[in-house]
Amino acid sequence: MSSLVRKSLDSPDETRKFEAGAGQLQLVEATTGGVGRATFQPGWRWSEHVKPIAKTDSCQTAHVGYVLSGRMKVVMEDGEEMEYGPGDFASMAPGHDAWTLGDEPCVFLDWNGYSNYAKA
User: Region Disordered: what ranges (predicted)?
Assistant: First the structure.
């Protein structure tokens, strides 16, 4: 196996669409796990557009990533909440809902939690 790998999120290994055209996840698989770029359209909300796919009450994926553009609000099951925007590093534990803020898509790069995200 080669010690160097190059893949592009512009030509992903897999693309997963969210409900109602609310966005998509572009995923590349590496030996260390999946890396993904999700585009959450204005009006996207996890509990409306991914919950029907995941079939859990809240997002049960841990995320570690970076906001490339747009804004997102995340609320944990215990009520803790935070907003993220361009240039923010984000770490989110399982057990949350999230939604896009404003009228610009939120683009989020995640190198931890997207291998099974929005997967039926």
Answer: 1-20
